[in-house]
Amino acid sequence: MSFISYLVNGLSLGSVYAIIALGYTMVYGIAKMLNFAHGDVIMIGAYMALISLTQLGLPVLPAILVAVVVCTVLGVVIERVAYRPLRDASSSLAVLITAIGVSYLLQNTALLIFGANTQSFPSVIKWSGVSLAGGRLNISGVTIVTIAACLVIMIFLTLFVQKSKPGQAMRAVSEDRGAAQLMGINVNGTIAMTFAIGSALAAVAGVLLCSAYPTLDPYTGAMPGIKAFVAAVFGGIGSISGAFIGGLLLGIIEILGRAYISSQMADAIVFAVLIIVLLVKPTGLLGKKIQEKV
Amino acid sequence: MLKKLKTMKKTTRSSMITYAIVIVAFIVMQALTYTGNLSSLLQGLLVPLCTYVILAVSLNLVVGILGELSLGHAGFMCVGAFSSAFFSKCMRDVITVAPLRFFLALLIGIAVAAVFGIIIGIPVLRLKGDYLAIVTLAFGEIIKNLVNVLFIGVDSNGFHFSTKDVMGLNMEADGTVIVNGPQGITGTPKDSTFLIGTILVLITLFIVINLTNSRDGRAIMAIRDNRIAAESIGINVTKYKLMAFTISAALAGAAGVLYAHNLSTLSANTNNFGYNMSISILVFVVLGGIGSIRGSMIAAVILTLLPELLRGFADYRMLIYAIVLILMMLFNWAPKAIEWREKYLSFGKRKKEAVK
Lengths: 294, 356
Description:
The complex is a heterodimer of chains A (294) and B (356). Chain A is mainly alpha-helical and 294 residues long.
């Protein structure tokens, strides 16, 4: 029975990773860049929700809305100020290093504003969950809500990208930016929209993450951010369903590794997964192979 | 002498200037120390300064010359530091001559770091760009994690290893713990001196500068500029990439040895051997100019001294590092910024004409 409860916890953590990984995978698919600052947007989102809940005394849903709005604006501003000027730079290292700089900027700004102390995050979900198998298997409300939220987001996003006009524009830009521009697609607008969606999802992920693990400090987002990137690579970067599967698998691997191998080595196990995936199948589980052009 | 300086090749003259800067800085610092004009704070910074200079120069070999981003540089430093500190602590009473002990520890640290460089380099260098960066980051974190769960003790029966705790070592009563997991190694002899540090800096510079100006170095730079073109003229891409990566790792290991023997307690955390350290080194390289050896040396010194000298500035150090990273990248690489620079700043123009 403990195995099943680990599995459920893994699914819950994996759902959070999947939501974060979506932001990575969409941005990578369209802007061809690794947005290192994505994990720190999660942290900002969680802080915004915390302030709305405790300082402003807002109810839960408006508080999450505040976090989503702030993160969306933040994501678009980051893209406009730091990434767009470098989109056509001759060196691909330039934008990667800038992204690392933005990540550090967010962390240290949060450090100056909110302080280094770990703050406890109030429970957003009051539901105590369900008890199965005669009380031997307890699933908390947070776990169920997280998994459900992940499923809903995944379905909506897939529909959005496949069926809607802006979604088609996104796919076109990720396929060939130049050709998309010639077809009259607003490339800058589409990329900005991708950042907005990714950052909004990051805010949701931040609230869910901090509800499940109720501590918050300026470095909260960094590790889940990197792990979510691992999940995105695992599933095949650029693919939405890949991010979903990669996130869930990674969450399960991490929780099972923590339970059965070593709790201190859990991070190392996750990174080992990344290394093995990249060496055996660099395109990930669902990724497409891209031919290198001379 | 001056005439000779003029007839030298441009690269030779440039490297001579680099060496001269290090030697002059060393003499000035020594003179200030003897006349008592150097505060104890600054004296304590001399060896760390050498460590950071070596790290920055060695990372520049990967980022600037090889053209790949490594975010796990602190991991190699960690390996070098722990292996050498382990050796020095075991040999503390066997070899009592400090310089000899340090020299042997240095060799061990470099060798272990180089071996890790090869082991990690072979799989990692098949990747490129973002993937390579994230995998080096992953390796750096794995190394830090492994060191934190490592317990080694010694008793009359020899060495004992464990990955759980001190009790797991199953030692006899006379056993001593050498590596104590998250607490690390305590009681490493303080063998690092500013003189040794300076010599290591000079050796590092010598290796990196000579490599850059050699046939091998040109092959590495050809791979950086166009991998496919380099491959098509018969350059063994894997060999040269691995060469640059391993040398860089070995030099980082040397920096780790210097670092470890300057502290009595050595433990691995995010700030000294983790991601933060890797980023700090990257900031040195970026601020100094990617590919410029002398630049990374000077940037390492300035960025280490500034926060210590300006009080109250320390809280903002990482914030300023972040802003420096972003602004340097935007200024140097954004197509619009390059255009603006060529239009309004004369030095960009002159350089272009000189090339023509």
